[in-house]
Amino acid sequence: MAGQVAEPLYEHLFLCTLLLSALFLRKQLAMQLPKLEDFPLGTEFYIKEFDVPLVRISEGSKCKWLNWFGGTPKEYDATALIVSNNWEAESFEQWLKIVKDSL
Predict the structure, then answer these.
(1) How many whole angstroms separate alpha carbon 43 and alpha carbon 49?
(2) Number of domains into which the chain is organized
(3) Domain extent at residue 4
(4) Partner residues linked to 62 by β-bridges
């Protein structure tokens, strides 16, 4: 009797796992990671607290900050930044790896 109940349960779990894997793969394929060419010349790439990819874009005398955590840019309030919790990325590739890791 226990074997009869367990078998459909395992089939159900297997199908759920397949579905979740397919949805995850679909999301990964649909998401386009940014390229350096997507940013205006002079854009600066920052990392906050080891895992938050930030972008600083100069707009004349002002600048705009964006948070790319999760792969989608969102406006970022730079007043939360202090000298010790963020730094400029060594390269665009280093910054992009942080974006990938946040997906």
Answers:
(1) 20
(2) 2
(3) 1-30
(4) 59
Whether 50 and 95 map to the same domain: the answer is yes
User: Distance between CA 97 and CA 91 in Å, rounded?
Assistant: 10
**pLDDT, average across residues 42-47:** 97
Mean pLDDT of 31-35: 85
- Positive or negative torsion for Cα 5, 11, 16, 17: positive
Pair (46, 95) in one structural domain: yes
Q: What pTM does this model have?
A: 0.69
Quote the tokens at residue 19: 């579905």
Distance set, CA 100 to CA 2, 26, 59 (Å) = 44, 15, 27
Residues 16 and 55 in one domain: no
